[in-house]
Amino acid sequence: MKKIKIIVDENQKEIRIDKFLKSNIENISRNQIQKLTISGKVLVNQHTVKKNYKIKPLDFVEIEISNIEILDHLEYENIIAEKINLNIIYEDEDVIVVNKPAGMVVHPGFGNEKGTLIHGIKYHFQNKNLNDFNLYRSGLVHRLDKDTSGLLVIAKNEYSKKYLFQQFNSKTIQREYRALIWGNLLEEKGIITGFIGRDPKNRKRMTLFKKNEYYKGKYSVTHYKVLERFKYLTYVSCNIKTGKTHQIRAHFKYLGHPLFHDSMYGGNKIFMKKKCSNKNIEFFKNCLKLLSRQALHAISLSFIHPKNGKCYFYCPIPEDFKIVLQKCRKIFL
After folding, report:
1. Which of the residues 59, 94, 145, 147 is marked catalytic?
2. Which of 46, 63, 91, 159 is the most exposed place for a label (fewest CB within 10 A)?
C-alpha cells in the first residue's frame, strides 16, 4: 500500500476531487478513485470526503492506493489486445523481460487508451494460447517513462508478481541506467538524495523539496558514476535504490545538469550556449534532432527469479542514443 500526499496549490480552482486526482495521479481511473473515496481511502484535511467534494486552495489531500491493483479487474478485462512488435529479451512460465523502445507508454491511462506495452503483452499471451493467463493477477511490477528506453520485467502469474514486488519493496532488485547529461559533473561518482514529489507549479513534473518541506515528497536515492566526459556533456551510469517517478531526471535537474533533450526539465536547450562556439552550437542542434527524447536508457536488470535464483539481463544502448555518443566521441575526445 502506498500513500500519496498532495497540498493543493493556492491558485487552484474549485473542482471535484475525482477530477483533481485524475489529473494529478498517473495511471489512475475515475472508477478506481470513486471506489477509494467510498471506502474511506481519500482524506482531505484528515477527514473522509464524498466523491462530489470540491477541492479548495491549500487543501491537504491523502490517498491510499494498493501497489498491486493499478486498475480493477473489469478495466483489465476491457483492455483490447493489440498486435505490437515486442522486443522480448527473456521469457519463461513465470516472468517476461522486455526491452521497451522510447515512445511507448507502459500502461493505459488518460490520453493513452491504446498502443501501450500492456496492450501488446495481452496480445502476446493470447496468441500463445495461455488460457490461464490473468492480466489482473499478474502484470507490471515497475515502469519506465514513455521516452525512456530499456528493460522491464513483467510477472506472468500472481505468485511471481508478489515475489518481485517484495524485492522492489526491500530494494534488492538492481537496475542500471545510462544517461547523457548537460554540463561537466564535478565529481567522478556520487549519491543524489532528497525528498521527491510533484512540483506544485507543474503537476506533471517532479521536484526535490527542501528539508523543511520533506513531508511533501518521498525519500529517493540515486548513485551515479561518470563514464565519459565530452566538455559540455557527461555520460553517466546510474543505479537507483528507490524507484520514484522521474527520479533520475529530477535528480540531475536538481544538480543543475538536466538530461540531454529532456524537454520537461529544460534539457531540450543547449547548455552554456554563450560559452559554445558556433560550430559546437550547430553540432548540438544536430544531436538534438538525432536524439529527439531524453537520453536515458535502462541498460541492465538483476533480480531473484521466483524459481531459478539470481538472474541478470542486459540490453545495449539504442541506435539514436548510440549515434549521439559516437558523434560526441569524435568531436570532444
Report:
1. 145
2. 46
